[in-house]
Design brief:
This protein is an all-alpha fold. It has one domain: Orthogonal Bundle (Farnesyl Diphosphate Synthase). The protein contains 15 helices and two strands. Strands 1-2 form a two-stranded antiparallel ribbon. A hairpin with a 2-residue loop joins strand 1 and strand 2. Helix 6 runs antiparallel to helix 9. The chain is globular, with a radius of gyration of 21 Å. The N terminus is likely disordered.
Length: 384
């Protein structure tokens, strides 16, 4: 099985009418977050950000990288993806795999389980659980590559030659399919039908989540009318949380842990995912930098809370007032409007709620340095 590839896309992809923050665990770049991750990687035995070594050296992906060089000088997002195969970035670590490994180590071997055997463990983690962590990253990478397909109906000359953009789309589809196929092959080699079912359902959730995102992007102003917080959480879970939550549960199943342990692992992954997505959504609104961001997502949580506070009519008026002469949005004006109401504070409260729920779930595992690392990660997503 190919190990998980390293992706550094981080919201650079352009699909539909605007950019989206595509990478969970890429928005937190504070020194505290970096230290938490670095300490956690030492606990599981090796830096998860180097999981992709075998994949990077494979002939197939080497050929892909050579073809992608043709996109140099264009704005196709696959170019940024390819750069991620070469250049390291401290702020874009493979957190899904790391969390799966930490939970595996925190849970330890199942009492009374005869297979797998404890002596098969390395640094307190079964080989099958390490394979699962790599499969999880590989699936995530495949979907990020697929999400980098550009809507050619909105192509402009500034994006680059049309034939190059078409070529980039073909490469994104084929490369994503290649990575996903290898992930499925590795999944089958785990020889566990429940794990296959869990991860397969997570792939289905990702597809459904992307469909919802595309439907929302087709509406002026981002989210469709009537979307409430519960609906936002459901969409965020499908797009960003289901893969992690179900991978955490699958890691418990591979070690033959009982349903309670699987439920706690799933709960931790779910709430951690939602908490960090909220943290990422909040970054443009809580940064202390004097330079205001030029863009933020109109379907982010603070904007959703703001829309619910002011009502659809006033929100539509604010959108009109923020339009420039060229019918583009002045995001500085919109940001000021959102910050003037309770949207930001409501999103912060919800982020803290999910962080606390993740902390509550991890308390069900025995005290250890792995559990402490998971606690630190859950706490870090509530820091801004």
């Amino acid at each position: 099985m190919f190990a998980a590839t390293r992706l550094r896309l981080c919201g650079a992809a352009l699909t539909g009418r605007g950019r989206r923050n595509l990478s969970l665990f890429s928005g937190s770049s504070t020194p505290n977050w970096t230290k938490v991750v670095s300490d956690a990687e030492k606990i599981v035995g090796y830096p998860t950000s180097f999981m992709s070594l075998r994949c990077l050296l494979s002939d197939e992906l080497s050929n892909v990288a050579m073809h992608v060089r043709k996109l140099a000088g264009t704005r196709h997002p696959l170019l940024n993806t390819a750069r991620g195969f070469v250049y390291d970035s401290k702020n874009n670590l493979q957190m899904r795999g790391l969390i799966v490994l930490l939970l595996s180590k925190a849970a330890g071997p199942s009492r009374g389980a005869s297979d797998p055997l404890p002596q098969d463990m390395v640094s307190g983690i079964y080989p099958s659980q390490r394979n699962l962590a790599e499969i999880t990253e590989l699936i995530h990478t495949a979907f990020l590559v697929h999400r980098g397909v550009v809507n050619l109906k909105e192509w402009t000359v500034s994006d680059g030659p049309l034939k190059d953009m078409e070529f980039g789309n073909k490469m994104a589809v084929l490369s994503g399919d290649f990575l996903l196929a290898n992930a499925c092959t590795g999944l089958a080699q785990l020889n566990n039908t429940q794990v296959v079912e869990l991860i397969s359902s997570a792939i289905g959730d990702l597809v459904q989540g992307i469909y919802y995102e595309n439907a929302g992007n087709q509406e002026d102003g981002g989210l469709v009318d009537g979307v409430n917080v519960a609906a936002w959480e459901e969409q965020a879970f499908l797009s960003h949380g289901a893969l992690l939550a179900k991978s955490c549960q699958a890691a418990m199943e591979l070690a033959k842990h009982d349903e309670d342990a699987q439920r706690l692992a799933y709960t931790y992954g779910k709430h951690l995912s939602l908490g960090h997505q909220l943290n990422s959504d909040l970054q443009p609104f809580v940064k202390s930098s004097a330079v205001e961001p030029t863009w933020f997502s109109l379907d982010s949580a603070p904007v959703l809370f703001h829309r619910q506070t002011v009502g659809q009519e006033r929100w539509s008026l604010q959108l009109q007032q923020a339009q420039t002469v060229r019918k583009q949005l002045d995001y500085s004006k919109l940001l000021a409007a959102v910050k003037s109401e309770k949207g930001v504070s409501s999103a912060v409260d919800l982020c803290c709620y999910h962080g606390n729920k993740a902390l509550e779930a991890i308390q069900g595992f025995p005290s250890s340095e792995a559990r402490s690392a998971l606690e630190n990660i859950a706490s870090a997503i509530t820091k801004f």
